[in-house]
Amino acid sequence: MYKHKTQIQIRFKDVDSMGHVNNANHFTYFEIARVNYFNEVVNETINWSKQGIILAHMEIDYRNPILLTDEVWVYTGIIHFGVKSFEVGYQIIRIVNGVEITVAEGKSVQVCFDYETNTTIPIPDIWKQKVFAYEPSLKR
After folding, report:
1. What letters, b where the CB count within 10 A reaches 16 and e where it falls short, cover 43-78?
2. 4-134 is classed CATH 2.60.40.1940
3. Most-buried pick from 36, 40, 56, 57 (CB within 10 A)?
4. Would you place residue 95 in the very low, low, confident or very high pLDDT band (cuts 50, 70, 90)?
5. Residue extents of the structural domains in the chain
6. Considering the chain, what is the average pLDDT of its residues?
């Protein structure tokens, strides 16, 4: 399980005709959690018109359905740093009678990118420092 936790508000539009949250929404929940992680852990101002990150890969394993009235959270954490890319892990849970039930797990790969030169760039050292301070068990 990951350390960082983001609550997700399930919207009526997320639910399909079967009464379940449509599986495509899980990727949006990952994105919400990833942005929240960066805002809270990395906490660096990013000029997205110059440099930032791009999503290179995303995968998910579905375990259980989510319903409109469920209390849903996403645990998020950095799994691995490369030179120019890093991997984020996710676990979506719903809470039923005080018990956390895993509904989906996944991961994504983000690449640091310079939009002005249209090239990949190394991960900023300050990002790594802040993540390692937040997640000291992460391998360096």
Report:
1. eeeeeeeeeebeeeebebeeeeebeeebebbbbbbb
2. no
3. 36
4. very high
5. 4-134
6. 95
